[in-house]
Automatic annotation (TrEMBL):
<dbReference type="GO" id="GO:0000076">
    <property type="term" value="P:DNA replication checkpoint signaling"/>
</dbReference>
<dbReference type="InterPro" id="IPR044998">
    <property type="entry name" value="Timeless"/>
</dbReference>
<dbReference type="GO" id="GO:0031298">
    <property type="term" value="C:replication fork protection complex"/>
</dbReference>
<dbReference type="InterPro" id="IPR006906">
    <property type="entry name" value="Timeless_N"/>
</dbReference>
<keyword id="KW-0539">Nucleus</keyword>
<dbReference type="Pfam" id="PF04821">
    <property type="entry name" value="TIMELESS"/>
</dbReference>
<protein>
    <submittedName>
        <fullName>Protein timeless homolog</fullName>
    </submittedName>
</protein>
<dbReference type="GO" id="GO:0006281">
    <property type="term" value="P:DNA repair"/>
</dbReference>
<keyword id="KW-0131">Cell cycle</keyword>
<feature type="domain" description="Timeless N-terminal">
    <location>
        <begin position="24"/>
        <end position="191"/>
    </location>
</feature>
<dbReference type="GO" id="GO:0003677">
    <property type="term" value="F:DNA binding"/>
</dbReference>
<dbReference type="GO" id="GO:0043111">
    <property type="term" value="P:replication fork arrest"/>
</dbReference>
Length: 191
């Protein structure tokens, strides 16, 4: 597939999620299928992690996925699929590339992915997101073993992986230049 064509298709897919108007996110009718399409795109990315980079550059986590989680957390199927996509998007760069690349170009791609991850970590410093995630996790953990379905256990595992991935994101060097009385992004996420 031509790279230009793929960019257009990916852009169209991202646009089909919905839009943010003020503090309200309006999802499109096919939002759930669109999230599944994004997961399929990520499966087909090449060794440069081109899809991951394009999604990071579009700030899809900040502008679409987090607002959808905050507003449509009661849509079980959509919530589960978005968590699945977020776990994939927040994978550590070292996991995506296998190791820190020696090649100059691949090292650049690696650092781009790290930069996007740092942006995701900033977006996850939103208390409302953690309220939704903790409430969902609490509800799932309250289910008896006999009543807990396999997909419930899988969602618990994915939510914990998402938390791990966000906490694993390395600090931005610019962030470390803060004074002692400023809270880092990592501290904000922990709080």
């Amino acid at each position: 597939m031509d790279l230009y064509m793929m960019n257009c298709e990916l852009l169209a897919t991202c646009s089909a999620l919905g839009y943010l108007e003020g503090d309200t996110y309006h999802k499109e009718p096919d939002c759930h299928e669109t999230v599944k399409d994004l997961i399929r795109y990520l499966r087909r990315e090449d060794e440069t992690r081109d899809i991951r980079q394009q999604l990071g550059a579009s700030q899809i986590v900040q502008t679409d996925l987090i607002p959808i989680i905050k507003q449509y957390h009661d849509d079980k199927a959509l919530f589960e699929t978005i968590i699945r996509l977020l776990v994939n998007l927040t994978q550590p760069a070292i996991v995506c590339f296998g190791k820190v690349p020696k090649d100059k170009m691949f090292r650049h791609y690696f650092l781009d992915v790290v930069s996007y991850l740092q942006g995701y970590k900033v977006a996850f410093a939103d208390g409302e997101v953690w309220t939704v995630l903790s409430r969902k996790l609490y509800e799932l953990l309250q289910l008896d073993w006999e009543n807990r379905q396999e997909e419930d256990s899988l969602l618990i595992e994915r939510m914990l992986l998402l938390v791990r991935n966000i906490l694993h994101v390395p600090a931005d060097p610019e962030e470390e230049k803060r004074t002692d009385d400023d809270a880092s992004v990592h501290d904000q996420v922990l709080w």
